[in-house]
Amino acid sequence: MTVKKKQIVECDVIDVAFGGKGLAKIDGFAVFIDQTVTGDRLAARIVRKKRNYAEAVVQELLRPSPMRVDAPCPYSGYCGGCKWQFIDYPHQLEFKRRHVSESLEHIAMMEGVRVHPTLPSERVFGYRNKMEFSCSDRRWLMPHELGTDADIGFALGLHVPGTFHKVLDTDACLLQPDTGNRILESVRRYMRQSDRPVYGLRSHEGFWRFLMLRHSVDRDRWMVNIVTASEDRDAVQPLADLLMDQFTEVVCVVNNITARRSGVAIGEREIHLAGEPVLTDRIGDFEFEISANSFFQTNTRGAGRLYETVGRYADLRGDETVVDLYCGTGTIAIWLAAKARRVIGLELVESAVADARKNCLSNGIDNCSFILGDIKDTLENIETTPDLLVIDPPRAGMHKDVLKQVCRMGPEKIVYVSCNPATMARDMLELKADYTLEEVQPVDMFPHTFHIESVARLVRKT
Ligand code: SAH
């Protein structure tokens, strides 16, 4: 049977593919179906046909998989924020472990690598310490709102995959703690009543652009960042004052201003509106000052588990030189500093390096130093061979030249931290002639999404 666009096919989901979609085979032909899981039997409608595979959506679920649970969030299945709420948590963890293991098999051509069971997240809801809600002048209507008199000209919430200008008017997001949802509601009410217009993602006109919330888990305090298209203190200051009045938990309100068209909630300029200038949180024994635009792991408790794994794999005695590639704001360097002779962090972003230095000072750490610049250029300036190299690249993985330099440098041990199993596997392919991949520990920082963080331990071949 050949599969055609718009055709309805009956099929069984036999696996979950990387990217989180269910996989079915129609006479051997692969069909990927969003929002399905192994064990589902369904009628699927083909929406896209390519040479080697097709994509389909659920027309009717004929027999639900035993792995299914009722998603507690009403936006589940529509919202792009998290797509796996309908799969029970133990199976989410197992799918993630398999994605890591299969990426190593298929991309790195490595059989039999020890990939441990995924370390679960301590919390499966309310775990995110940072949320970004978009404003839009076009609201995505939920099925029960279609044909009602719901106001479609305003939305503050999360995106629906496949449309860029329509946004859900999200009442609450279960990935953030509940206070965040009360703040969201308050801001929505204010923006709706305001005489300043909401931003249009297609027209690129309007004032209110994003609401970013950050939560300090350690102190249970919040930062509110209101992102607008232009400067207008009269519009934003009353909102800041209102939030400071209404919520004892809100300790900081800032206004980022951006005229850029891109959908990134980072301002060219920041105005401090109320309270403290930064938020303070803690991972393990260390405190970190977080400003609106600085990078910080989005699951604070999960970051603790991740760094514990890094520490265990690093297995330091106290006299080692450690080099930390892609060090960001220095969190891993700081985590390892007490057990090493010295740590050198390399990072591209100037503000991250400034934060890293500040974080060392405030945590009383004096054996870390940081080098600003592209690792492609800065790594070759490191003269000594480190005893341990920590590598925590962005999603895209490492640059080919950097991988070559790492092999030339030849540190005894490497701890590789990754948020993308596919690029991790690609980098392992480059390292495997010189290094043995001893073990990999997946750590779940993002329940109900298919994202997975992993820590890999490599030892140089003799
Ligand atoms: N290790 C940190 C952050 C990792 S995120 C933590 O755990 O918090 C990856 C970091 O790599 C980002 O801070 C990014 O700015 C940095 N980066 C990306 N490309 C880079 C490059 N070519 N050279 C140096 N740093 C880079």
TrEMBL record:
Gene Ontology BP, a term: RNA processing
Catalytic residues of the enzyme: C419
Residue ranges of every copy of the TRAM domain listed in the record: 2-60
UniProt cross-references to Pfam families, sorted A to Z: tRNA_U5-meth_tr (PF05958)
GO-annotated molecular function: RNA methyltransferase activity; S-adenosylmethionine-dependent methyltransferase activity
Any coiled-coil regions, as ranges: none
Residues reported to bind S-adenosyl-L-methionine: Q297, Y326, E347, D392
UniProtKB keywords: Methyltransferase, S-adenosyl-L-methionine, Transferase
PANTHER family: RNA M5U METHYLTRANSFERASE, TRNA (URACIL(54)-C(5))-METHYLTRANSFERASE
Family: Belongs to the class I-like SAM-binding methyltransferase superfamily. RNA M5U methyltransferase family.
The protein, known as: Putative RNA methyltransferase
